[in-house]
Write a structure and sequence with these properties.
592 residues, alpha/beta, 8-stranded mixed beta sheet, 7-stranded mixed beta sheet, 19 helices, 17 strands, 36% helix, 16% strand
């Protein structure tokens, strides 16, 4: 078909030219009802594939209620929503003109209408569904509206019906929870039943690794639901339709220059042919056999944008995740190489959100500690901290459960260079500002004591950053330093300590519970930490701390070190070493 006319991308006035990598083009070419894609890091999963699907849906189902789900609200607000808005911006969509966020759609004055395109002059089309609140909702000019929610906040998704679901980083979705959400994809059949996308979904992620607690490979089950022959027929038909569109746009370009009657006739004929093939392509996509498309690709699909240097750096630094995160290869399960061998699912809880408090915050608001269900505002906090390019802060509180002492990891905070200790202190103050009891017990590395002698007292700097604000005014917090005079905590001791502590078998030690959502990066750090053996002694593999700085929250062992300093206090280390006379289960001050 090389003899057929093509659009001259540099000269055409009848079409816009945008970049897509070949697998994003393939997803657009198939345009199925249900899309499942496992793609390597940097492959534009959200900004390209998901946003392109979003645009297809907003034109095909005007006024339709949709939902975009994430694993946590913080991930949704900090990572996914900005990526979605960036993708829309790249494709020419402007906030306030094409969509509005968390507010009523605008109406335009006559003067404003005069400056708008013809198709936008009347006003935003109304959503078909009744919107009681605009919170956590984006409304597009066609009336299609997307409610953003997260699996850690069930209230954001409850009580509504949707016709389409978007989801990114699907490997963090619990299979049971996402299956429950898909049951809400129902209704509005009379309005949207003829759309190819009706009751559809788009889920993207990088390759799940089930050896990491919290990652689920449910998405791989969708491979068996794809009929390859049916999908290939859609692709072949779509390619013919695409070629017909090329010929139509080329003919229209020619007619716009010549204004000749014969060129106008040819333009109309080419349009008729393109519409014919579009109808055939659409009908094939409606078939049940062609409604599921599973896509698996490495980061190399976006090589033109990422460049050779990016891959060289990624290969040199990705350590354990090269096969999964970059090459999208299914991981081989390895036993016995996890540092925290006693860590298991029962250490994590998923109901740590105070739903009533959470409803006060919008998508762009910065939430605070009022959303933590198990936080006691009248008791002191405990904090473990580790410093470096990534400064990690693990925040906990002690209590009891069924008569036994327990410690709950309530929240994890961090900074990445160039942010440092002052920024970490500010983040803590802002998040825990509503606390009534402003007493904080700080546990840190022995290096915090050593550095003090040479004027690099990092723990002291953090104490100051919490007790006073940027203007030097007192904040009301009182920080008690708990690691003064502490010796070195060796990794071999940590390995043994954590096995015993996490087993929960010693009644003199508290039970451990970690908020799987509020302390997500700590959870990942504990799960990803691997062992290395030297001269028969087990150490924690620290190579991940040399990764590119943007990968540290997800891949570094730094968060686990802040967790270590919090738990490996003198009295609990004594109990683990078999010297109970030196240890107590819980400091009496924390019982109050």
């Amino acid at each position: 078909m090389s003899y057929r006319k093509k659009v001259d991308a540099e000269r055409t006035q009848q079409a816009t030219v945008q970049y897509q990598n070949m697998f994003a083009q393939l997803a657009s070419l198939v345009a199925p009802r249900r899309l499942f894609a496992i793609l390597g890091r940097g492959s534009a999963k959200t900004t390209d594939i998901q946003v392109e699907r979003l645009i297809d849906v907003l034109y095909d189902m005007p006024g339709a209620p949709c939902v975009w789900v994430a694993d946590t609200f913080s991930n949704l607000a900090a990572n996914i929503l900005p990526a979605v808005l960036e993708g829309l911006e790249r494709k020419g969509f402007r906030e306030g003109i094409h969509y509005v966020i968390e507010k009523e759609p605008p109406t335009f004055t006559d003067k404003e209408k005069a400056d708008l395109p013809e198709w936008l002059k009347p006003h935003f089309w109304k959503p078909y569904n009744r919107l009681v609140s605009y919170k956590r909702t984006i409304i597009f000019f066609t009336g299609m509206n997307i409610r953003f929610g997260s699996l850690d906040r069930p209230s954001t998704l409850a009580g509504s019906s949707y016709v389409y679901v978007f989801g990114d980083e699907a490997k963090y979705f619990k299979e049971a929870k996402i299956a429950n959400l898909l049951k809400a994809v129902r209704g509005y059949r009379a309005q949207y039943g003829n759309s190819v996308f009706y009751r559809g979904c788009s889920f993207t992620t990088d390759m799940p690794d089930t050896s990491h607690i919290g990652e689920d490979d449910w998405i791989l089950k969708e491979i068996g639901n794809m009929d390859k022959e049916a999908v290939l027929l859609v692709i072949r038909t779509g390619l013919v339709y695409n070629q017909a569109m090329h010929e139509y746009v080329a003919a229209k370009d020619k007619w716009s220059r010549t204004k000749a009657a014969e060129d106008l006739t040819e333009c109309r004929n080419k349009l008729r042919t393109a519409n014919l093939w579009r109808a055939r392509w659409t009908e094939l996509r409606r078939l049940d056999k062609a409604d599921t498309f599973f896509l698996l690709a490495s980061s190399y699909v976006n090589a033109d944008i990422l460049t050779e240097g990016w891959f060289a750096d990624a290969i040199a630094s990705s350590m354990n995740d090269l096969q999964t995160a970059i090459l999208s290869c299914r991981p081989k399960l390895e036993s016995g190489n996890r540092f925290y061998t006693s860590l298991s699912e029962h250490h994590f809880y998923y109901d740590g959100i105070n739903e009533d408090a959470y409803d006060r915050f919008g998508m762009r608001d910065h939430e605070d500690c009022r959303v933590l269900k198990y936080l006691n505002h009248d008791k002191p906090l405990q904090l473990g901290v580790d410093f470096g390019n990534m400064c990690s802060m693990t925040i906990a509180q002690e209590g009891t459960l069924n008569g036994r002492a327990c410690i709950r990891i309530l929240k994890f905070l961090y900074t990445l260079a160039p942010e440092f200790i002052a920024d970490l202190g500010r983040k803590f103050r802002e998040y825990f500002e509503p606390m009534n009891n402003k007493t904080l017990y700080l546990y840190y590395d022995r290096a915090g004591n050593s550095y003090k002698k040479v004027g690099l007292d990092q723990a002291g700097q953090l104490k100051k950053a919490i007790e006073t604000d940027e203007n030097g005014c007192r904040t009301g917090w009182r920080v008690i330093m708990m690691s003064v005079g502490q010796g070195t905590i060796r990794q071999s001791e940590e390995y043994n300590f954590m096995q015993i502590f996490m087993s929960g078998q010693n009644p003199r030690l508290p039970m451990l519970f970690i908020d799987a959502y509020a302390a997500k990066y700590l959870k990942l750090s504990l799960e990803n930490a691997r062992t290395t053996v030297k001269s028969g002694i087990v150490y924690k593999d620290k190579k991940s701390e040399k990764l590119p700085i943007e990968q540290l929250p997800v891949k570094s062992t730094n968060p686990s070190d802040s967790f270590k300093y919090l738990l490996m206090r003198k009295e609990w280390r004594a109990i683990v070493k078999g010297n109970p006379t030196q240890g107590v289960v819980m400091d009496p001050i924390f019982r109050k």
